[in-house]
Amino acid sequence: MVLDGGKKHVQDEEKQRLLLDDHKEKHFTAGEVVRDIIIGVSDGLTVPFALAAGLSGANASSALVLTAGLAEVAAGAISMGLGGYLAAKSESDHYNRELQREQDEIDTVPDVEAAEIADILSQYGLGPEEYGPVVTSLRNNPKAWLEFMMKFELGLEKPDPRRALTSAATIALSYVAGGLVPLLPYVFVPKAGRAMAVSVAVTLAALLFFGFVKGRFTGDRPFISAIQTTIVGALASAAAFGMARAVQSI
User: Fold this and answer.
1) How far is 157 from 205, CA to CA, in rounded Å?
2) What's the whole-model pTM score?
3) Which positions carry the signal peptide feature in this UniProt record (predicted)?
4) Rg (CA), the chain
5) By C-alpha distance, which of 99, 101, 103 is closest to 91?
6) For residues 65 and 59, what is the distance between their CA atoms, to the nearest angstrom?
7) For residue 226, which of 26, 70, 160, 211 is within the disulfide window of CB 3.0 to 4.6 Å?
């Protein structure tokens, strides 16, 4: 009977493994990278575009618009990348502080922390007879206990140690990629007025495409996302152009 029970247990485990192999869930897991790309490209498309439109509205030459635009792209990429680095570094530092604090609580007041496990599991509908063995198992596995408390009590996931540098590089490069789009017409068209018209068309097309792709990745409706992204970029550029014209008329 014992052998039959052990054989059945092995068969059940094998069946579960086969089910997991056959069932491939299509979840999108690169959210942080996509978020950084969205931040970098969206700012890169709108800010240099608005600057170029504003300078064109002030009758600046294409060379001046291009020079100022490239300087802004360089400064913006550094600033945005640094912001991404500091944000990710702060998140990592916060996690490590809470990790140490939680470890100290497990060491000094283990019964209180065990009671918190029971309270968390009871919120999922488990009764004492069901969560009791789980509490005991976690108390016998300090590493798993600590990870459980970080995730389910504090709602914190362990950050990637390379996250800060990855975020900085992703945002900065995305900003440069987006920022060069509205400036390219000024390289080939010497008259700023005509270059601005081409820049408007090219940038609006890029905003539409970027918004569509962003919607596909984030789960939003792609066409709605494309329209929203384009409207934001257009409003930013129109505001800059209008302010430049107003200042010029004074």
Assistant:
1) 38
2) 0.72
3) none
4) 27
5) 99
6) 10
7) 211
Q: List the structure tokens of 120.
A: 């968390």
* Residue where the block lists tokens 């408390």: 149
> Where do the domains of the chain lie?
33-249
Q: Which has the closest alpha carbon to 99: 132, 135, 147, 60?
A: 147
166 HSE (CA, 13 A, CB side): 11
Quote the DSSP letter at residue 67. H
List Cβ neighbours of 161 (8 Å cut-off, separation of 6 or more): 92
Tokens of 71: 């300087």
The mean pLDDT value of the chain amounts to 81
pLDDT for 28: 46
User: For the segment 222-250, what is each residue's pLDDT rounded down to a tens digit?
Assistant: 888 889 888 887 787 777 667 766 776 66
For residues 9 and 169, which has the higher predicted lDDT (pLDDT)?
169
Q: Whole-angstrom Cα distance, residue 76 to residue 96? A: 30
